[in-house]
Design brief:
There is one protein chain. With about 250 residues, this protein is α+β, with helices and mostly antiparallel strands. The protein has helices at about 30-35, 40-45, 65-70, 85-90, 140-145, 215-225, 235-240, and strands at about 10, 20-25, 50-55, 60-65, 80, 100, 105-110, 115-120, 125-130, 160-165, 175-180, 185-190, 195-205, 245. The protein has a seven-stranded mixed β-sheet with strand order 4-3-11-12-13-10-14. A hairpin with a 5-residue loop joins strand 3 and strand 4 (about 60-65). The radius of gyration is 21 Å and the shape is globular. About 15% of the residues are buried.
Length: about 250
């Protein structure tokens, strides 16, 4: 017997945009989306990366492989979909069954033992039996309940910065990687008409808590790790939009 539940989802982001970084769906994940009935839709959204090239500091190609040679996946079976396409595929079956509140966020939580009383940034008040925080690595909901994330942070020592760039060369279905010990730069393209995605990583002894929500500090931090002209990294960073920076978390 299934109990009747009133379900509500509060989404801080704007209504879903069909873009974003690629999410790999392979192995068990592919079985899961198949059982959920999402596989046909995600096949249509597959971005089909066909080549990954490795570059030296001058930008010259030193080697290239098929994606499945790097990931260990299966050609014709594995999928890559934009994060926004995956979110939309998950959202579509629920849109008429769950109330979604886009463009709002939780301001305060008060758990009285019987229910959780929530006030949103918009001023709206709600009461729930259960609140689940699923809002990312640096969860605002978790911080409201448990306090600052620093005491709970497990830092393996790497920082990631992501951004988008104009696709001036009309690149499609491929990725480029430059790396050396402690640093790497990746750019990958889906379609000629879409921006390309840049991704920088570097080793750091301590997590950059001060940069997580400060775009200027993020830019300064990343620029300090790529001070010289390597490939086109400095040019990317000068031209990119607002970066998204985080540390890896176990």
């Amino acid at each position: 017997m299934r109990a009747a539940l009133r379900r509500k989802a509060v989404a801080w982001l704007r209504p879903l945009a069909l873009s974003g970084y690629a999410i790999d769906i392979r192995g068990t994940a592919r079985e899961v989306v198949d059982r959920m009935g999402l596989l046909p839709r995600l096949r249509e959204a597959h971005i089909d990366t066909r080549r990954i090239s490795f570059l030296d500091a001058a930008g010259d190609t030193v080697g290239a492989v098929r994606p499945e040679q790097l990931t260990g996946g299966e050609s014709g079976q594995d999928l890559e979909v934009r994060r926004g396409d995956l979110a939309d595929a998950l959202y579509a079956p629920l849109r008429d069954r769950v109330e979604f509140l886009f463009g709002d966020s939780i301001a305060t939580l008060d758990d009285d033992g019987n229910a959780v009383h929530v006030v949103l940034d918009s001023g709206a008040h709600h009461t729930f039996d259960l609140v689940i925080g699923a809002d990312g690595l640096h969860s605002h909901t978790r911080r409201l309940v448990f306090g600052p994330e620093e005491p709970f942070h497990h830092y393996p020592g790497h920082v990631f910065a992501g951004f988008t760039l104009p696709n001036e060369l009309g690149l499609a279905h491929e990725a480029f990687i430059w790396s050396e010990p402690g640093r790497s730069a990746v750019v990958y393209a889906y379609e000629p008409s879409e921006p390309v995605h840049g991704f920088l990583t570097f080793v750091r002894d301590t997590p950059p808590f001060e940069a997580f929500r400060d775009p200027r500090t993020q830019r300064d931090l990343v620029a300090s790790q790529f001070p010289e002209q390597v490939w086109q990294v400095r040019g990317w960073w000068r031209r990119c939009g607002r970066p998204r920076t985080s540390s890896s978390t176990s």
